[in-house]
Amino acid sequence: MLGKQSKKPTNRLAPVWRGGVPDHAIDLCWSPAGKQLAVAAVTGPVVLFDGSTGKELHTLSGHGFGTTAIAYHPAEDGTLATAGQDGKARIWDTATGAVRCTLDGGASWVERLAWSADGSTLATTAGKKVRLWNPTTGEQLREYANHGGTVADLAWRPGTNLLAVAAYGAISVYDPTQPDAVRKYEWKGSALRLAWSPNGVMLAHGNQDSSVHFWYADSGKELHMSGFPSKVRELSWDFSSRFLATGGGDAVCVWDCGGKGPEGTQPAMLSGHSTVSAVAWQRRGFLLASGDDQGRLILWQPANRTPLIGGATFEGTDITGVTWSPDDKLLAVGSGAGTVGVFKVV
């Protein structure tokens, strides 16, 4: 742990409201203006809450057999995309709760989706397929050739119109105007999650083999960090692109990616969890939130001599996701029991 706690610190996390969804909260996200919080239950329903009060605005039916992922349009509070185990993605009007269009993912389970930065394109993954869509008309813009294995994740490179796609054996990069990958980062392993640094310089992925791999996007230089206690699904960059927080064990690892990068260095270890299940830096601030499989939420200020500055407990369940509001004033948390909590920093 960074530093030593000489006395019990003041808890800087204060509860604002608590609510719930019908089952395990599999995903949650804020609308771009921070007015709404959407939370998806694994069984299908997606509940829209007023971000300030917790009032339920709508319950969307979501997807038959279960919802897998949700994402607000990057510039429109009124537009939400969802993906599910019925092989479909849907785009919803959050003001009315109505479906605007339904998109066929091309396989039985749509696992991931991601908006381009300007919101003009929605990317979806289903099995080995990646498809691009016009979210206004529902028109399919492009389908790429099947990948060699199931697509695990996808993420748009900041500052560009390039899409990175993770499947076994490589990270493929696509330009939506081109039919084939414009670049491949060959890597013989199974990536689970992708995370671009906000400046678009580095791409990190957490892996099945309990490692984290880094790519310098332009040069193709790569770094590899292994030895985590478990597979790594939790990744979050700070806004400066210098620090990457990862899970993969009982501590949050904070890697310093400045200068020559993290290779050959030791991360700062933030101890206090059982098994880390979620991490999230503030969007423009210096605070880091993390959760674990025993329901413990911790607020960190890693630069402090005593970095643990707040926390809360969700009894009898695991924390499935944490996300900061666009203004960094509110922190939303979802749990395996379907509990939803929103906190503010004081």
What structural keywords apply?
single chain, 346 residues, mainly beta
Structure in words:
The chain has 346 residues and is mainly β. The protein has strands at residues 13-20, 25-30, 36-41, 46-50, 56-60, 67-72, 79-84, 88-93, 98-104, 110-115, 122-126, 129-133, 140-143, 153-156, 163-167, 169-174, 181-187, 191-196, 202-207, 211-216, 222-226, 235-237, 243-246, 251-256, 268-271, 276-281, 288-292, 296-300, 308-313, 319-324, 330-335, 339-345. The protein has a 4-stranded antiparallel β-sheet, with no helix packed on it. Strands 2-3-4-5 form a 4-stranded antiparallel β-sheet, with no helix packed on it. A hairpin with a 1-residue loop joins strand 15 (163-167) and strand 16 (169-174). 45% of the residues are buried. The model is unreliable at 1-6 (pLDDT under 50).
Widest sheet, order of strands = 1-32-31-30
Helix content: under 10%
* Uncertain residue ranges: 1-6
Beta percentage is over 45%
| Beta strand count | 32
Q: What is the alpha-carbon Rg in Å?
A: 19 Å
Distance between the termini: 23 Å
- Described by the principal axes of the CA atoms, the overall outline is globular
What about the largest sheet? 4 strands, antiparallel
Q: What value does the average pLDDT take? A: 96
